[in-house]
């Protein structure tokens, strides 16, 4: 057997993925949201410490972060029985049996025994809600150490909320992009948090002490684009016009965030090419002498990157695809909790009506488990922005002192299984043929298959182990 080199060892032994229950709601222990319960063999879940007559080894909850997993205290939830669930892996799924007092539901259907699959929601009636996922028992170490320490389940220093594998992969990508002087393109659907990503990358960069300069490209009038971007000399083009530094000049020594970069006309993209190169050269309108700006451009779009001019796109060394809530569903309860905390901080009457108080301070929101369970399964199209709207709707339509699944909210919710049925109907052979027929273009392939957008295609590619880049991920390494 030949010598195994380090890079070969890393790629040939991916982290083992384990079926897990992630705590999404708890009546008595709301501070434990995001904790994971791995199921690697026969396992029982129940209140308190293990006893000699347990029908299976008692499992433990973990707070899993990159490079470390912290064992948590046993469940103290008064509505969970001493032994409530007995579970064991069944392929990639979990076979479970209910032994507790509180009825058990899988995706809203009451069971005494059943199979829970990745993406399912398991409820212990009025006691706890769990989301089923598969992830490494311990997340791989990342380069996001500069984020410092922050409490489990709380926002990181730049506002990103989440303890999922996807959330930590994002933090890792932001840290790497921030550590270089190269330009960054952020990709993702509307509402996924591209502005927060820009703030994170800037905050992790060498120019973090200088304020980030931000502008939405779609709000700049086309006739004034060059003046907005590069500035103008005094009295140009008309007498009395003040001198303006322009966005490029303002961002010298800092980062410039241009949202909706796909709305920038090709002519303006061409004008930005020189300033995006290493010397950062540009000219203000009305000046003959070139200037230089040392800036890092962070651009964002919800369109396909192929809509950008090819030589402009080539300047973005770092391209980060920001996943939507549907790709990190176990973070939804944590994100919702943070949105509600922000609402309570600015609205005294709402805080007084819907939030618990402890030690004379506002604590967690009184959130109904049926609302959490449905949000975990909802097919989000505008992600965090949509989640915030749904929570406001729940507050505004509430009749009691808790935030629940009102008829108004229920009318807005769609089960994710309904929206992803189109994905299940496209087999691997059809997908591979469509990629080949469309030069492996995600946008054209999605259109040819009649999919809603290229992000649905990306989920399909991951499901079947394919890539639009021309490699079959399943067959690598």
Kindly summarize this structure in a few lines.
The protein has 477 residues and is α+β, with helices and mostly antiparallel strands.
| Share of residues in strands | 15-25%
Report the radius of gyration as a whole number of Å: 25 Å
> Helicity, in percent?
25-40%
CATH first level of the largest domain: which class?
Alpha Beta
The tally of domains stands at 4
Tally of helical segments: 17
Order of strands in the sheet with most strands: 2-1-12-11-8-9
Architecture overview:
The chain has helices at residues 6-12, 165-179, 194-203, 225-230, 246-250, 266-276, 310-313, 332-346, 348-354, 369-377, 383-396, 407-410, 416-419, 421-424, 428-437, 442-449, 454-464, and strands spanning 17-26, 36-38, 43-45, 62-65, 68-71, 85-90, 93-98, 104-106, 109-111, 113-116, 121-124, 128-136, 184-187, 213-216, 255-259, 281-282, 291-292, 296-301, 318-321, 355-358, 361-365. It is of the alpha+beta class and 477 residues long. It folds into four domains: 17-136, Tumour Suppressor Smad4 (Sandwich); 152-323, Rossmann fold; 326-419, Helicase, Ruva Protein, domain 3; 421-475. Strand 16 (281-282) and strand 17 form a beta hairpin. The protein is globular and about 85 Å long. The relative contact order is 0.09.
